[in-house]
């Protein structure tokens, strides 16, 4: 080691002015000083109030627009946007798409197990009669489409998202929707490859969840959902093992080990 150069850490760069303006604007929106739908003061006034140039204000506005906090309407001005849960879900889904795909399905399944067990319990306590009826209908309808994995997968999505909606907590839907969307093809794969695991088992698992929700049995809904997700994870684990075996075979010139 060259002793003339000890372990020196690079100096942190000073935060850019527009980032500091962003950090000042967000609390003003959070505390209601500028509510959703309000128009911000003109650029010139903001620059004077913050003691920065108009260029800095423009950069701050662009940053907040990219985050979905503000929007610029041509000829009208800059407005505070209403919260958009769909935009949050889209951003999370994009993040998931950019992750390492090797074991993403299993990692997402682990998150689903944490989220959906409690979702089922809350749905049992809070679902409306109409939601309970729709869940029951979906379970019955799924039995009519044995042999149509994509149709079954779509109904599977609908059932899980309906359970999230029935919690009366929109944040569950915001979090769960991109997870399920990312796993869309894995849902189809699962329905195509239950194979030795009879599809009847899956129908019975869904029906057990819904039956617990229908009678308001939160603990029963937890148990039923936990069993269902474990079953699903087993399918994904088998798929990962098949992928790994295929890579090993390819790496050995196509010859099995």
Structure description:
The chain is about 70% helix and about 5% strand. It has 11 helices and 2 strands. It has helices at about 15-30, 45-50, 55-65, 85-100, 105-125, 130-140, 150-165, 170-180, 185-190, 200-215, 220-250, and strands spanning about 70-75, 75-80. It has a two-stranded antiparallel ribbon. Helix 5 packs antiparallel against helix 11.
Please describe the topology of this protein.
Elements: H1 17-30, H2 43-50, H3 54-66, E1 70-73, E2 77-80, H4 85-98, H5 104-126, H6 129-142, H7 149-165, H8 170-182, H9 184-192, H10 199-214, H11 218-251
Antiparallel strand pairs: 1-2
Produce a short descriptive summary.
The protein has helices at residues 17-30, 43-50, 54-66, 85-98, 104-126, 129-142, 149-165, 170-182, 184-192, 199-214, 218-251; strands spanning 70-73, 77-80.
CATH topology-level fold name of the largest domain: Four Helix Bundle (Hemerythrin (Met), subunit A)
N- to C-terminal distance: 45 Å
Overall pLDDT metric: 85
What is the helical fraction, as a range of percent? 55-70%
CATH class of the largest domain: Mainly Alpha
Core attributes:
single chain, 257 residues, Four Helix Bundle (Hemerythrin (Met), subunit A), 2 domains, two-stranded antiparallel ribbon, 11 helices, 2 strands, 3% strand
């Amino acid at each position: 080691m060259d002793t003339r150069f000890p372990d020196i850490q690079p100096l942190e760069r000073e935060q850019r002015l527009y980032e500091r303006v962003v950090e000042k604007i967000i609390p003003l929106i959070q505390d209601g000083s500028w509510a959703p739908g309000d128009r911000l003061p003109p650029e010139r006034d903001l620059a004077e109030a913050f003691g920065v140039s108009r260029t800095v204000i423009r950069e701050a506005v662009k940053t907040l627009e990219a985050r979905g906090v503000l929007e610029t309407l041509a000829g009208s001005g800059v407005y505070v946007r209403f919260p958009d849960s769909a935009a949050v879900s889209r951003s999370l889904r994009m993040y998931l798409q950019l992750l390492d795909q090797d074991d993403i399905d299993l990692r997402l399944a682990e998150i689903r197990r944490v989220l959906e067990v409690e979702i089922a319990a809350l749905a049992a306590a809070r679902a409306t009669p109409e939601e309970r009826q729709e869940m029951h209908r979906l379970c019955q309808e799924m039995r009519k489409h044995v042999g149509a994995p994509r149709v079954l997968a779509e109904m599977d999505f609908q059932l899980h998202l309906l359970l999230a909606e029935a919690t009366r907590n929109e944040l569950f839907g915001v979090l769960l929707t991109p997870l399920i969307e990312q796993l869309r093809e894995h849902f189809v794969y699962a329905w195509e490859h239950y194979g030795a695991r009879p599809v009847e088992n899956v129908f019975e698992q869904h029906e057990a969840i819904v039956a617990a929700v229908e009678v308001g049995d939160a603990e029963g809904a937890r148990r039923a959902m936990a069993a269902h997700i474990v079953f699903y994870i087993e399918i994904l684990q088998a798929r990962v093992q098949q992928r790994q075996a295929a890579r090993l075979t390819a790496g050995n010139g196509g010859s099995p080990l």
